[in-house]
Amino acid sequence: MNFVVTIDGTAASGKSTTAIGVAERLGLFYIDSGAMYRGVALAVLRAGIDITDRHAIANLARKLKFDFKIEDGKVRVFMNGEDISNIIRGSEISELSSVIATYPEVRKVLVAMQRELTKRGNTICEGRDMGTVVFPDAAIKIYMDASLEERARRRLRDLHRKGEKVTLEEIITSLRQRDERDKTRKHSPLKPAPDAIHIDTTNLTIDAMRR
Ligand code: C5P
């Protein structure tokens, strides 16, 4: 069994920045499970599937293959060979991914893929249920959080850099809704694993998170 490190936590709490930095430094494989839920959301939009049709969405998810490549501190996400890194980061996909993530049929498909991906070698993975459900025996488990306002400011900077016109208030509303949905859903809700190390990143800089 390979060595697995998990980072779970709220949206925009610093999981990706930390996981990518650690993966680069220690030469670990990297899995962004949130990008997989986002990828399924993108495929659903493209296929025009009804977002309440959980069986059709799970069937569609089964046909997808994900891969992650880290280059110069940035991750590229591939879905069936297509680079979807940028198109999955918009607000519509954020919202849709958190809705389809409530469907156990879809989670089952992605969880099997996540476990399969760790067979390649030692891996760091980030998400909401990595330490609680997908890899309960992970060697190191981290749970990250930060204040809603700080997370919204970080997300605003990211989205503005990508040219999306959105206000701080809109992001606060969307993050709050997404956190609420992620924490209260019946299947694999976001919560710290009992053996997770808690890190509050509200007052941490990117450099401090990478150290
Ligand atoms: O991490 P990110 O914000 O990109 O994830 C998008 C959505 O995917 C989350 O809001 C959450 O609903 C879902 N997700 C999940 N389980 C994971 C990772 C992400 O339910 N392990």
Task: Summarize the structure in words.
The chain has 211 residues and is α/β, with parallel strands linked by helices. It has a single domain, classed as P-loop containing nucleotide triphosphate hydrolases (Rossmann fold, 3-Layer(aba) Sandwich), CATH 3.40.50. The chain is 48% helix and 18% strand. The strands form two sheets. Strands 2-6-1-7-8 form a five-stranded parallel sheet. A three-stranded antiparallel sheet has the order 3-4-5, covered by helices on one side. Helix 2 crosses helix 4, helix 3 runs parallel beside helix 5 and helix 4 runs parallel beside helix 8. It starts with a strand and ends with a helix. The mean pLDDT is 95. The site of cytidine-5'-monophosphate (C5P) has 15 residues, from helix 2, helix 4 and helix 8.
Q: Which structural class do the helices and strands define?
A: alpha/beta
CATH superfamily: P-loop containing nucleotide triphosphate hydrolases
Give the CA-based shape: globular
Q: Helical element count?
A: 9
Low-confidence stretches: none
- Note the quaternary state here: single chain
Bound molecules: cytidine-5'-monophosphate
The domain tally reads 1
Task: Provide the residue-averaged pLDDT.
Answer: 95
Radius of gyration: 16 Å
Question: Which strands sit side by side, in order, in the main sheet?
Answer: 2-6-1-7-8
Tell me, what is the CATH class?
A: Alpha Beta
The biggest beta sheet is recorded as:
5 strands, parallel
* CATH topology (level 3) name: Rossmann fold
Could you give the distance between the termini?
27 Å
Extended strand count: 8
Query: What sequence of helices (H) and strands (E) makes up the elements?
Result: EHEHHEEEHHEHEHHEH
Query: What is the helix fraction of residues, given as a range?
Result: 40-55%
